[in-house]
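Weekly sync, protein design subgroup
Attendees: M.S., D.O., the rotation student, P.L. (late)

Item 1: inverse folding check
M.S. brought a backbone from last month's batch and wanted to see whether the design step gives back something sensible before we order anything. D.O. pointed out we never logged the input encoding, so this time it goes straight into the notes. Structure tokens as presented (55 positions):
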């Protein structure tokens, strides 16, 4: 059994939640990068942040 999502539900419910999650992840990673003392960990976090960037 497959549940389908209509365009209205996608636009009104799912996309705003995805955008909020993206914003939270970006802010968290940026804050951790700024406070990070370890250069290797800073590079790793920067790479993770780049993977989350939307183009």
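Designed sequence read out in the meeting:
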């Amino acid at each position: 059994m497959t549940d389908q999502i209509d365009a209205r539900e996608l636009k009104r419910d799912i996309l705003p939640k995805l955008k909020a999650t993206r914003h939270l992840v970006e802010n968290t990673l940026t804050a951790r990068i700024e406070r990070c003392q370890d250069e290797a960990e800073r590079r790793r976090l920067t790479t993770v942040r780049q993977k989350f960037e939307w183009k």
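Discussion: The two ends are 34 Å apart (CA to CA). The mean pLDDT is 90.
Action: P.L. to compare against the previous round before Friday.
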